[in-house]
Amino acid sequence: MSYLTTITRMWLTRSFKPWTFTNENDNFLDFGELDKLGLYIHIPFCKSICSFCPYCKEIYEVEKCNKYIESLIKEIHLVGSMHVGKKVVTSLYFGGGTPALAINSLYKIIDAVKEHFIITEGIGVELHPNDVRIDVLQELQKIGVTKISIGIQSFQKKFQSILGREAVDIQYLKSMLNKFYFETISIDLIFALPSQKYEDLKKDIDDAFNAGANHIAIYPFINFSFLNSNIPVMNNNEKKILLDRISNYCLNKGYVRNSIWTFTNNKKAKYSSMTRDNFLGFGCSATTLLRDQFKINTFSVEEYCNRIDNNILATALTIRFSIRQRMIYYLFWTAYSTVISKKNFKEFFGISLEKMYGIEMKLAKKLGFIIEKNDTYQLSLKGCFYYHYYENYYTLAYIDKMWGYLRNNPFPKRMVL
Ligand SMILES: C[S@@+](CC[C@H](N)C(=O)[O-])C[C@H]1O[C@@H](n2cnc3c(N)ncnc32)[C@H](O)[C@@H]1O
Ligand code: SF4
User: Which member of 96, 227, 356, 379 lies 3.0 to 4.6 Å from 338 by CB, making a disulfide possible if both were Cys?
Assistant: First the structure.
């Protein structure tokens, strides 16, 4: 498996150089001139821990959470004041963990953000199904949240119990979502769970839209090696058939695919914190992507607070990209949105996509992975599947390794992937 990712990496970056991360910690981030900059804030607390979940989180405690939010606000001011004046950004997303556990502090965090940034495309918050309540939704609307994403995973008891989650009351969910307007109401579902059939997923998709979602994310189940989860993984063949069938089901219903795993019945609905040209991440485990570097904060809540209290950014690892590495990173995440724009590539890198990856594009076209349309390359159904397949490898070869390591090492010296 890792042979495939290594060979692809060497071919696409035209170099033997691996992805090398070091403990370099810039205390100045040069984001002032960057276009299409997004913001992400991580809240790493949950009421209980789900065995399948790889994200950085710990059990919620009021005092710990309050202390963390103080540090978070300090980090926002620390980074925000590296740019003189207010910087225009696209969106602000809160993820976790369970951000609504800090519902009464979110306004303070947003106020801190607004002292340095002008948000033009709205604010998104990830919700646990238990957060879908009048008091939480009211507060979210009051503080200007425009997008919510609810982690349902499955509406069916059988799969909820495989995942160790409680059943969701659809009628209650529907009544709550009918009471409040959000531009995007997204529901997360997980597919490729043991014994899960096309009919199960079709029902989940219908239930999600009927409950009031205008956007769904259907993630393939990934068994991260550092978790002690005993949920078996579906084989690739079965997964391919499932993905093709659910994709066709959504497309035949007239839903628009706005990324490999997301579909919407309203073109305005969008929920994605990763598909940005550049982003700044705040909080533990949050990542930052700039023109020539990618960095990830420490996974330790305690170490994060200590560093920030000493006015030092809590970066655990940084990679300085070669130009080809940056292009591959850019193309990987642009392809995730299913459309690669030649114009945007040229604007970002100052050189045409054809010049840098003309052969690869021709090959991908010949193999039926992409379709050339005007100024864009669009992923075909086959392309979407192979992207999904490769993303699976990428997650296990890179993310699994990095997150697994960072969970036990707050500030490693170096990491080579
Ligand atoms: C930060 S998590 C969940 C947000 C919220 N705390 C909740 O539990 O509903 C974001 C999403 O990642 C997805 N996810 C988590 N672990 C996964 C795994 N092992 N494989 C695939 N998707 C996963 C789930 O769909 C989840 O809703
Ligand atoms: S799935 Fe949600 S509630 Fe469960 S551990 Fe992950 S972030 Fe927390």
Answer: 379
pLDDT for res 2: 63
Residue 81: burial class (beta carbons within 10 Å; 0-12, 13-18, 19+) = exposed
User: Residue 86 has what DSSP assignment?
Assistant: P
Question: What pLDDT is stored for residue 1 in this prediction?
Answer: 47
Amino acid at 357: Y
Q: Is 53 in the pocket of ligand 1 (CB under 6 A)?
A: yes
Q: Which residues of the chain have pLDDT under 50?
A: 1
Judged by its nearest atom, the ligand closest to the C-alpha of residue 274 is: 1
Give the residue from 54, 151, 167 showing the smallest Cα distance to 99. 151
What structural domains and CATH numbers belong to the chain?
A: 1-17+323-406 (1.10.10), 20-264 (3.20.20.70)
CB 222 near ligand 1, within 6 Å? yes
What gap in Å lies between CA 407 and CA 54, rounded to an integer?
A: 10
Calpha distance 72→41 (Å, rounded): 8
Q: Which amino acid is at 196?
A: Q
Chain center to CA of 70: 24
Beta bridge partners of 122: none
Residue 208, SS3 per DSSP: helix
Q: What pLDDT score was predicted for residue 294?
A: 95
Tokens of 285: 């485990």
Structure tokens belonging to residue 195: 């014994």
Site to substitute for ligand 1 among 45, 51, 53, most atoms within 8 A of C-beta: 53
Q: Which of 42, 155, 166, 188 for mutating ligand 1's site (highest number of atoms within 8 Å of CB)? A: 188
